[in-house]
Design brief:
Strand order of the largest sheet: 7-6-3-4-5-9-8
Structural class: alpha+beta
Radius of gyration: 29 Å
Helix content: 10-25%
Shape: globular
Strand content: 25-35%
Number of strands: 30
Number of domains: 4
Distance between the termini: 79 Å
Number of helices: 12
């Protein structure tokens, strides 16, 4: 290589800009070149957007530790003598035999871990409902502080979205997280998940938005519209923020499918949903949602072909509950709702959200297809009943992890049920006491020797069930009736 070309190359300086980070690839001729430490300090650290986001948001992220006392049962290991004479001389082994048959109980402290983020200078913190559900004590720890805060639950945590609001009494001015607009996010954007996975405080992981509008997960909240990300989310991240490159919180990290089956699949609740829940809890002490009174169902190609529908958009009405806005509006089973309050209906999840977000008392127009013809109906949206109140007309979710509905004459006729009275199981929560014991379609005939003929019987029987005791169900499953024992937690 000639000296002239070599000198020219020494004078060339190249830069590559990636995400706002400048990397020097050549050397500057003339004067002393900067040291590697100076390059990192000035060009990488100062200009790195991830560093800036971490500095802005981490002070608003909190670690949540919960405790509760749980009962556990065990059988006395010394209850059996293992003697071959035990059956021959029971009078000598009676006490040990009784100890073996009777389980003993003890209480132990169970701890939970999660995350949250401060959204108000007065100490309001958003987190997941499952983080603080059924706990006796909630402690919140802020970045850089050793002394935790005692926190209290504000209003009623929302099971429909798995969002809860808690509050601490600040000892000093707090850093408040900046909330973004989750409706404007795009697949491929950089995001950061911040939280306390496995108790490792203020951990930040980086990834992108992999997908939007994810739904259809069993055992999850009713209203599903999750953001999917490949930013690592682990146990303890629940309730923490998912932030964009601007330092705005655009989601609340909530769950993963399974760390042993799939990787890079984390899901977050959109921040617009969380903000809406926060505002409703502050205003009403609970989340108030709109209610129509039908069971909507997605349309599959076979339905569209058989019923000569113009497409697969919309929802088909598979059940109309009595004395509800739907029944009063004239909606019927097999009506296909294609438009709600002037907006096109694309599917079940979107339709449920549309109804839930409609103000109570508002009159809306429903455009439906009935017998191949379009028809417009009007319904006055009511308030979605609370879990306890709703049980008389809709679904009731119990502590055993099952959701049931009261059997109606329409259900008997449409599904050819063998029982005309009682309650039918419509969902079983994965991992609940009833999981693998009961299943959708089971008709509950008795609970602990009490006959179940309606929802009131069902609720009363559950109220009479003592904590820690097993529950015996007599159910009809298909052509047969069987007893099923649901073990206490």
């Amino acid at each position: 290589m000639s000296a002239k070309i070599e000198g020219l190359l020494l004078r060339l300086t190249s830069y590559v800009v990636i995400g706002g980070i400048t990397l020097m690839l050549g050397m500057v001729v003339g004067g002393n070149p900067p040291s590697s430490a100076e390059v990192i300090s000035e060009d990488v650290t100062a200009g790195n957007p991830f560093v800036r986001v971490a500095q802005d948001i981490k002070p608003a992220v909190v670690q949540i530790t919960t405790t509760k006392m749980v009962k556990q049962r065990y059988w006395d290991p010394f209850g059996s003598s293992n003697s071959p004479f035990e059956d021959l001389f029971p009078e000598f082994f009676g006490e040990r035999r009784e100890r073996r048959k009777t389980p003993r109980e003890f209480k132990r402290k169970q701890e939970g871990l999660g995350s949250g983020f401060i959204i108000d200078k007065d100490g309001y913190i958003l987190t997941n409902r499952h983080v603080i559900k059924d706990v006796d004590e909630i402690q919140v720890k802020l970045l850089g502080e050793d002394q935790p805060y005692e926190a209290k639950i504000v209003g009623e945590p929302d099971p429909g979205t798995d969002i809860a609001l808690i509050k601490i009494e600040p000892r000093h001015p707090l850093t408040v997280a900046k909330l973004g607009n989750s409706d404007k996010i795009k697949v491929g954007e950089w995001v950061m998940a911040i939280g306390n996975p496995f108790g490792l405080e203020e951990t930040l992981t980086v990834g992108v938005i992999s997908a939007k509008g994810r739904s259809g997960f069993s055992g999850m909240p009713r209203y599903q519209d999750f953001i999917q990300t490949d930013a690592s989310i682990n146990f303890g991240n629940s309730g923490g923020p998912l932030a964009n490159i601007k330092g705005e919180v655009i989601g609340m990290n909530t769950f993963i499918i399974s760390p042993y089956v799939a990787q890079g699949l984390g899901f977050a609740i959109p921040i617009n949903v969380a903000r809406n829940v926060y505002e409703k809890i502050l205003k009403h002490g609970r989340v108030v949602r709109g209610y129509l009174g039908i069971v909507p169902q997605d349309i599959d190609p076979a339905m569209a072909k058989l019923w000569k529908l113009p497409g697969e958009k919309g929802v088909v009405v598979s059940d109309v509950q009595e004395n509800t806005p739907a029944s009063q509006s004239g909606l019927k089973v097999q009506d296909v709702i294609i438009e709600f309050d002037g907006k096109e209906v694309s599917g079940e999840e979107q339709f449920r959200k549309m109804v839930a977000d409609t103000p109570v008392g508002k009159k809306v127009e429903l455009k439906v297809i009935r017998d191949g013809k379009e028809k417009t109906l009007t319904a006055a949206i009511a308030e979605l009943p609370s879990e306890r109140k709703q049980s008389r007309t809709g679904e009731e979710e119990s502590k055993l992890g099952i959701a049931v509905r009261e059997i109606t004459p329409a259900m008997v006729e449409r599904h050819d049920l063998k029982e005309s009275r009682g309650v039918i199981v419509v969902n079983v929560e994965a991992g609940s006491p009833a999981d693998e014991k009961l299943q959708p379609g089971d008709i509950i005939k008795k609970i602990n020797n009490r006959r179940i003929e309606n929802m009131d019987d069902y609720l009363s029987s559950l109220d009479e069930t003592k904590p820690g005791e097993d529950t015996i169900f007599l159910i009809r499953r298909g052509k047969y009736t069987v007893f099923v024992v649901v073990k206490a937690e």
